[in-house]
Write a structure and sequence with these properties.
It comes from Paenibacillus terreus. InterPro entries: YycH, YycH/YycI_2. This is YycH family regulatory protein. The chain is built from eight helices and 25 strands. The protein is an alpha+beta fold. It has three domains: about 140 residues, no CATH class; about 80 residues, no CATH class; about 140 residues, YycH protein, domain 2 (TATA-Binding Protein). Strands 12, 13, 14, 15, 16, 17, 18, 19 and 20 form a nine-stranded antiparallel sheet that branches.
Length: about 425
């Protein structure tokens, strides 16, 4: 009997030791992460907020067509934009009919018919749109990437049409069943009647008919430290070594991974070389993995939008564009800020780039300026385009680092057909704006 008691006590001690060892190695769920292999990362602190992929996908603008060649534009975060988008997300779309892009005169339809056009510059895979809208899966349509959704009422005012335009530029899909009535669309379009008028130019882009009054804020900023990024990105930061480059940048490496920091630009580039794979990367899986990677290694310092998802020979490139209120923040070579960029391979981040600067959220100061519109803007475009065709124009913020934080300077960003671009600046506000947001 005594021997059995001894054996039971010994077994209990061994079991208790094993349980204690388990919790020491893995910890309780939610109490933090402990490394279990060299391919894991330490999440030491919450540097930014976490986001789901649904939070990162939204139209960069909403164009309202009111018939008789009357139009207006709503930007993200504005009242009517948010209201219309929330209503459309609750509507169902199904039974898709494929059509050639040449099957209709789309410019004429824009001019004559009432409707709502959602622009997703850079494109969004249909499998991700299904997370935002009630889109019934369809084998052919599901393989597409969409850059425009356009819902309009026919000339007779008796039927709505819901169109999804492919980024390939040659096909459009019509949802032959959509629970949007003519009255629904007309009500949404009516929100644009009292809004600043825009003019469609050459069927390609829209400009306000009057000057547009916008804010030029100075936003308080902070700086992620190199030590923070090292702790987030390396298996054991204590074994990294520092290499000084001739251009003033610094490289931190553990012989496998490397973190390059360009001090003047406060920009970091992290690389984790992955072995080549014969398997084709799944772009959507890569994107989802990229979102989770950022959640764990730096987080999101404000609002971001999926701006680009493109295929590489070995994986997927993903670019997230930062927004401040209604406008994107322009990433310029002279001052890298406003984007988070990743290269994903088989759902693993091989390249991760972002600014070490971040917006804290409060404003030090702000004043109003006027972005030119109408004939004034047209003259500027003709002068600066130098004969090149214009593909798109949109309001953006150019970041400028100053003592008080980051000044966000509003400009028109103009993209040309040949791939070039330029900006048109604002002037100080005086009097009442001819167009607003």
């Amino acid at each position: 009997m005594k021997e059995r008691l001894k054996s039971a006590a010994l077994a209990a001690l061994v079991l208790g030791s094993l349980v204690q060892s388990y919790f020491l190695i893995y910890r309780l769920p939610g109490s933090g992460t402990v490394l279990t292999s060299e391919t894991s990362y330490v999440q030491t602190e919450n540097m930014g907020q976490e986001e789901s992929v649904e939070d990162l996908i939204f139209p960069d603008r909403m164009i309202i067509h009111m018939g008789e060649n009357k139009h207006t534009v709503f930007y993200p975060g504005t009242t009517f934009y948010d209201l219309i988008l929330s209503r459309l997300e609750g509507r169902a779309f199904e039974n898709y009919q494929r059509r050639s892009i040449q099957s209709a005169d789309w410019n004429a339809i824009r001019q004559q018919n009432k409707g709502i056009e959602l622009s997703f510059s850079g494109g969004v895979p249909v499998t991700l749109l299904e997370r935002l809208m009630r889109i019934t899966p369809d084998p052919v349509f599901r393989a597409e990437t969409i850059n425009r959704i356009w819902i309009y009422i026919d000339k007779q005012g008796s039927k709505t049409h819901a169109l999804f335009f492919s980024t390939r530029g040659d096909v459009v899909y019509e949802a032959t069943q959509a629970d949007l009535t003519v009255e629904d669309v007309a009500q949404h379009v009516a929100f644009g009647i009292s809004s600043p008028p825009y003019e469609m130019v050459e069927g390609d882009y829209y400009i306000p008919q009057g000057d547009m009054e916008v804010e030029q804020p100075v936003v308080l900023s902070g700086l992620f430290t190199i030590e923070q990024m090292q702790r987030n990105l390396f298996f054991d930061p204590s074994i990294t070594r520092n290499i000084q480059e001739k251009d003033g940048s610094e490289i931190y490496t553990d012989s496998k991974r490397s973190l390059q920091v360009k001090q003047e630009q406060r920009w970091m580039s992290y690389t984790d070389p992955a072995a080549p794979s014969s398997e084709q990367s799944d772009a959507v899986r890569d994107l989802l993995a990229g979102v989770e990677f950022v959640n764990q290694h730096g987080g999101w310092d404000g609002r971001y939008r999926l701006a680009l998802q493109s295929s590489l020979d070995y994986g997927t490139k993903v670019v997230f564009q930062q927004y401040y209120k209604s406008f994107p923040v322009l990433d310029k070579p002279a001052f890298r800020f406003g984007t988070i960029q990743l290269e994903m391979q088989q759902e693993t981040a091989s390249v991760y780039e972002r600014s070490l600067l971040y917006l804290k959220g409060g404003e030090h100061s702000s004043h109003k300026v006027m972005l030119p519109g109408g004939e004034k803007l047209k003259q500027q475009l003709v002068k600066q385009a130098e004969g090149q065709a214009i593909r798109d124009i949109s309001p953006v913020y150019v970041p400028k680092l100053i003592d008080q934080g980051i000044e966000l300077v509003p400009v028109w960003r103009v993209k040309l057909e040949n791939g070039g671009e330029f900006t048109v600046g604002a002037s100080p506000a005086s009097g009442t704006a001819g167009a607003g947001r």
